[in-house]
Amino acid sequence: MTRQDRPIALQSQPHTFNQKLPPVAVVKLLLSLINFLAQVRQKVTPPPLTLHEMVGTYTFVSNAIRVAARLGIADLLKDGPKRSEELAQAVQAHPQSLYRLLRALTNVGVFAQEKDGRFKLTPISKYLQTDTPGSMRSLVVMGSQEWHYESWGHLLTSVKSGKAPFEVLYGMNLFQYFEQNPEAGEIFNCAMTGVSAQSTAAVAAIYDFSRVTTIVDVGGGLGTLVATLLKQYPQMLGVLFDRPHVIAGARSFLETEGVAQRCEILSGDFFEAIPSGGDAYILQNIIHDWDDERATAILKCCRRAIAATGKLLLCEMVIPPDNRPYFGTVFDLEMQVLCGSGRERTASEFRALFQAAGFKLTRVIPTPSFSYVIEGVPV
């Protein structure tokens, strides 16, 4: 493993995400307005400049953000503005080169610059701080890891062959690689914890869990989702279920969140069996990792475990059928590159999965995030 693949003090301890979220209707309205203005801007901008800007944004800017995240610049600005020379000394960087990086990121709103030349945080760079609840730093750093950027560098392989570049390069699937390379797995888990914290808050805010007695969090990692729900619903009990190496640190996290006494931690393989006894089974960003056959196998395990009156809840992106602008449509390429068989799905595709596994899809509920709650009942 190269030095670049090593963890960089990404997150001392995961946090539940407590920021108040706007109503779904407000989020949808703002996103529609942003998309409309972007379309207007694109129409009045010469196509070569639009294309140049697209390439620059997704190549130049994204790489600059990754470098800032790896260096921990946002953490260094936590106590107030600093000059680039001071920051360069702290991270052992070339002063002029770091200044140019920060100047570029200021231009796109990641950082801001005072009149005296000092750089400071913005609401965006706050989420590059290590200890911010819902921090995106680990996700950004993950994009700078060799296994990630090399896989994306072979996107053409996927388009021409249908195979996942990651699996072609490394000869195994993503999760097998993480088992054999725990440091890479730690970066991935920290990244997913940060992403999940935000969608978890959105799910908890929009779905009524008040009638749930015991919730089983399938593939729940360290337990961010189940901890959030247990804190919001004091009458609820929880079961956290995942692979042994994934949930190794779950107990300390649940104790920190004050819910360890109400949450049982169980390990196993969700392709083989899932703990019974819950009246709600929730899977957050699990099904999108797998093809239809494997996804159906997971849901069939849920069907065997769930009570006749239980609810199945998936927290996933849902691709709109009319292909209107939506982040999940672009993120689907990440699944194509890393997981091969994994994919984001439309509501009709989820409905077909549910039916094949013995469930009926009852609702697809938007949240104030990119995720939806997809609700089903056993039939």
Descriptive labels:
379 residues, disordered N terminus, Arc Repressor Mutant, subunit A, 16 helices, two-stranded antiparallel sheet, Rossmann fold, alpha/beta
Structure description:
- It is a single chain.
- A seven-stranded mixed beta sheet has the order 5-4-3-6-7-11-10, with helices on both faces. Strands 1-2 form a two-stranded antiparallel sheet.
- The chain is built from 16 helices and eleven strands.
- It folds into two domains: 20-132, Winged helix-like DNA-binding domain superfamily/Winged helix DNA-binding domain (Arc Repressor Mutant, subunit A); 203-327 and 337-378, Vaccinia Virus protein VP39 (Rossmann fold), CATH 3.40.50.150.
- 48% of the residues lie in helices and 14% in strands.
- Helix 15 (327-338) links the parallel strand 8 and strand 9.
- The chain starts with 23 loop residues before the first helix and ends with a strand.
- The longest helix has 25 residues, at 47-71.
- It is of the alpha/beta class and 379 residues long.
- The radius of gyration is 21 Å and the shape is globular.
- Helix 10 (174-180) crosses helix 11.
Q: What characterizes the major β-sheet?
A: 7 strands, mixed
**Low-confidence segments, ≥5 residues, pLDDT <50?**
1-7
Order of helices and strands: HHHHHEEHHHHHHEHEHEEHEEHEHEE
* Biggest β-sheet: strands ordered side by side in the sheet: 5-4-3-6-7-11-10
In which range does the helix fraction lie? Answer: 40-55%
Structural class: alpha/beta
CATH architecture of the largest domain: 3-Layer(aba) Sandwich
What is the averaged pLDDT score?
Answer: 90
The total count of helices amounts to 16
How many β-strand stretches? 11
CATH class label of the largest domain: Alpha Beta
Shape: globular
The third-level CATH topology of the largest domain is Rossmann fold
What proportion of the residues form beta strands (DSSP E)? 5-15%
Kindly report the name of the CATH homologous superfamily of the largest domain. Vaccinia Virus protein VP39
Q: Tell me the distance between the termini.
A: 48 Å
Q: Number of folding domains?
A: 2
**Any idea what the radius of gyration is?**
21 Å
